[in-house]
């Protein structure tokens, strides 16, 4: 098996599959898959290829880092965008308890950190919206207001009245 590190050139990545390495098989002793190596090297094209062949976006190496952590440490906005589009877990923590956004910030990649925080915030807001909660102010969540409940009740009464009328006509 061919061993690669994060500083490898993109031409060398294709050799991984020529030597028979599986898409999620660790390519080295630290448990890094080819997707880890691509993300670490900022190789968006190779990472895309990995994702299309079924790479596990959330596979963690011996440090607890997934490809999203590697891309954040490398400052690769392209790789981060691919991973986010592929539904990688943004809030996944490594063994030190750091998310990819934390690592991007620690390594000085402010644009990457901002991108990840924005995506995280957007996902959080979508989850809150799907659960019936809405933000009424900056500090608290409230259930939908009484007007929404009243409207729902009126709609169901109207449907029930129509059913009764059609039952009367049939009798």
From TrEMBL:
Cite the repeat ranges for ANK: 30-62, 63-95
Q: Where is the signal peptide?
A: none
Q: Which SUPFAM superfamilies match?
A: Ankyrin repeat
Is rRNA processing tagged as a keyword?
Answer: no
Q: Does the keyword Iron apply?
A: no
Q: What are the record's GO terms for cellular component?
A: cytosol; male germ cell nucleus; mitochondrion; nucleoplasm
Could you list this entry's UniProt keywords, alphabetically sorted. ANK repeat, Repeat
User: Native species of this protein?
Assistant: Serinus canaria
Q: Where do the segments described as Disordered lie?
A: 133-171
This chain's protein is named: Ankyrin repeat domain 37
């Amino acid at each position: 098996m061919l061993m690669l590190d994060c500083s490898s050139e993109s031409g060398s990545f294709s050799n991984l599959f020529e030597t028979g390495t599986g898409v999620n098989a660790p390519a080295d002793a630290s448990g890094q898959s080819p997707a880890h190596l691509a993300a670490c090297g900022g190789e968006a094209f190779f990472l895309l290829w990995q994702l299309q062949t079924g790479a596990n976006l959330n596979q963690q190496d011996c440090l607890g880092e997934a490809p999203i952590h590697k891309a954040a440490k490398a400052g690769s906005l392209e790789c981060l965008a691919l991973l986010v589009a592929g539904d990688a877990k943004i809030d996944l923590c490594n063994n030190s308890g750091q998310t990819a956004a934390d690592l991007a910030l620690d390594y000085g990649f402010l644009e990457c950190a901002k991108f990840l925080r924005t995506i995280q915030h957007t996902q959080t807001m979508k989850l809150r919206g799907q659960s019936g909660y809405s933000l009424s102010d900056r500090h608290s969540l409230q259930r939908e207001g009484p007007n929404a409940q009243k409207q729902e009740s009126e709609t169901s009464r109207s449907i029930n009245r129509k059913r009764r009328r059609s039952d009367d006509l049939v009798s």
